[in-house]
TrEMBL record:
InterPro entries: RNA_pol_sigma-70-like, RNA_pol_sigma-70_dom, RNA_pol_sigma70_r2, RNA_pol_sigma70_r4_t2, RNA_pol_sigma_r2, RNA_pol_sigma_r3/r4-like, WH-like_DNA-bd_sf
Any one GO MF annotation of this record: sigma factor activity
Domain of life: Bacteria
Entry's Gene Ontology BP terms: DNA-templated transcription initiation
SUPFAM superfamilies: Sigma2 domain of RNA polymerase sigma factors, Sigma3 and sigma4 domains of RNA polymerase sigma factors
Domain RNA polymerase sigma-70 region: 15-82
DNA-binding as UniProt keyword: yes
Keywords: DNA-binding, Sigma factor, Transcription, Transcription regulation
Official protein name in the record: RNA polymerase subunit sigma-70
Domain RNA polymerase sigma factor 70 region 4 type as annotated: residue spans: 105-157
Amino acid sequence: MEKFQNGDTEALNELYERYRAPLFRFIYRCTRDDQLSMDVVQDAFLKLQQKKHYFSPEKGRLKTYLFQIAYHTMISKINMRARWHRLLPFLYKEPVNISRSDEKMEVERMLQSLSNEQRAVIVLFYYHDLSQKDIARILNIPLGTVKSRLHQAVQKMRKEWGIESDGKGS
């Protein structure tokens, strides 16, 4: 990132190659929309290019910074789409993937049953190995909110999967 901030355009290409796929997977898992996901990733890198001097390693990791840009770009695009088209903000197009197991499809179905907020936390935590603190920064919410959304989402998925919770309550 330092090379890119100092004007090395090849460094942007390296960053793009490194983070394009993880960002796309994150946005796709939240939106289930190929085109929107590609647009968000492109816009996130454009914003990174425009605001490259705002990033500081002392404030956090580059991965966290990029995911934050992508998440807020996604929310902005979804809000704009909802405003203009009065449609549901997420489309459920299934990507072409020949070797999908039933279990993977069931997990994807359960992810879609979560609220957008819960889904974002689950995807960032389990699929992208981000800490709860990093997730709080990306989503611009308190750490306690991340923890509660994560807990609620896991409980909901366990219930749908038929796994007993920790024995408290139901």
